[in-house]
Amino acid sequence: xxxxxxxxxxxxxxxxxxxxxxxxxxxxxxxxxxxxxxxxxxxxxxxxxxxxxxxxxxxxxxxxxxxxxxxxxxxxxxxxxxxxxxxxxxxxxxxxxxxxxxxxxxxxxxxxxxxxxxxxxxxxxxxxxxxxxxxxxxxxxxxxxxxxxxxxxxxxxxxxxxxxxxxxxxxxxxxxxxxxxxxxxxxxxxxxxxxxxxxxxxxxxxxxxxxxxxxxxxxxxxxxxxxxxxxxxxxxxxxxxxxxxxxxxxxxxxxxxxxxxxxxxxxxxxxxxxxxxxxxxxxxxxxxxxxxxxxxxxxxxxxxxxxxxxxxxxxxxxxxxxxxxxxxxxxxxxxxxxxxxxxxxxxxxxxxxxxxxxxxxxxxxxxxxxxxxxx
Length: 375
Fold this sequence. Notes:
alpha+beta
């Protein structure tokens, strides 16, 4: 087996895994039997039409398992239909074309083996049926064209879904790395505080033991927080690249988002509640989420004249709203940026949602805990 064929043969099933069944499956299974009966009723000249309709209806449920067992369903359907074609007559009903859905399913969802074996079985069964019946050159060309088009469609959609999944994984990785860099700044802050407290404790230990004991308690608290954040860094970091040591942005930097751009919407930033005492990690995350929300609004919100960034902090947590007044239809297409925002909020134990605002425009809402992150 040549290298390209071997790579296809050993390919796993499509990722991400397919859904077992969706509403379209039930619609398909519910519509096909009446159509087959209607066609057979309208064409009394077709031989064995009643038997063919019964077989076609009996095989329709295989469509419900076409994503889970695509090759097996294809083998069952094409074997039964080819055997029946040889035994009695070649089918002349248009409803016999629905097994092409199984060919598509094999190429879209199956393993590499299924992608090679399935079309070979379909082509072999079709060739055998054509060879045993009255066949014209037009029949052969038309059959080949339909099968090739179905295979091409399945492969193209499979490749597009895989490319999107890879891009989403890359985006999540970048978000984790950026969050790890933000955590690095926080850890550096704690370590610096520990060093300063230790120096102070050393200086007063001989003269004031009680003050030295208080210093030790402060160091203990700082060390515990530092260890927790270091564990988070180890869990989230996916590469061995060195973390940047430049200070990360925080709540105080949100005002910079209000800068105007020629031809762009005006950005208004409002901070309410106790936003000054937020942990640096949460503050950096709020800034990143707001920055992405404003960037999306500037790029994608058509006819938007303003973008409101509202941050409210209380004892329970912090809430961020980024809302624009653009056209709803133009703003209602979330992309990779919103996926990254959801990933960042989830890593910190919060939530992030995006969608059309009730009164028009587009709104992004993120809620984060005041301290801590998912473990």
